[in-house]
Amino acid sequence: MSFNWIKITDRAREGIKIINSLPYATFSTVLQYVHRQMLSSSQNAAETRSEQKSSAELENENALEELEHLVGIPRPDFLLLIKTFSYILRRINTYIIKPSLLQAELREKLKLQDDAKIDAIVRLWVRQTTPIMNNLADERYESNEIADVAWKLNVEISSHCQQREKSPLAILQLKTGAGEDITLEMNHAELSELYHQFECIQSELDAILSQEHLQIKQNTKEI
């Protein structure tokens, strides 16, 4: 299953070709450099003094020059390499998916050719997303499930061209375990669409349960 998480332009393809051409050790060094720069740029506080900024920028320029010397390619290609790395890391940091799916996307959509390079990117992404997943697993989120559902019908009277028309509305009132009240107001078409989406979700759940039951039966036979 593929999803639209990144747009591969001609420039990005050229950058990916350069990534594929790098030895793994050089690739790993560039990957870690770009990752550190992204973390540094997001963590730099606005109150940092100008002389501190100048020192940090100088260190960054020196590190960039050393990295360019290590990679050993023309400067335009080197800058494209850095931009491509940054683009890929920014895009994967906006999604939380299965690592196996990310591996497949890097291999099939981005056309990365070295499994070791793909694994390095995935490991970096896992380290980034683990704190987010831990926060989502916090107990305070576990109670935020639907605890009660109420509904009622309402009739809205509208006037158009001096004609009075009754528009039925469905009002759903949801209460979560955390005490949050959610009210949804829908007309007939919107309610039908919501029902259709619920049916699709139910079908997916039924398919998953059927696969699990089949797997349990197979495991039981093997035992």
TrEMBL record:
InterPro entries: COMM, COMMD10
Leader sequence segment: none
Domain (COMM) ranges: 145-209
Superkingdom per UniProt: Eukaryota
UniProt name for this protein: COMM domain-containing protein
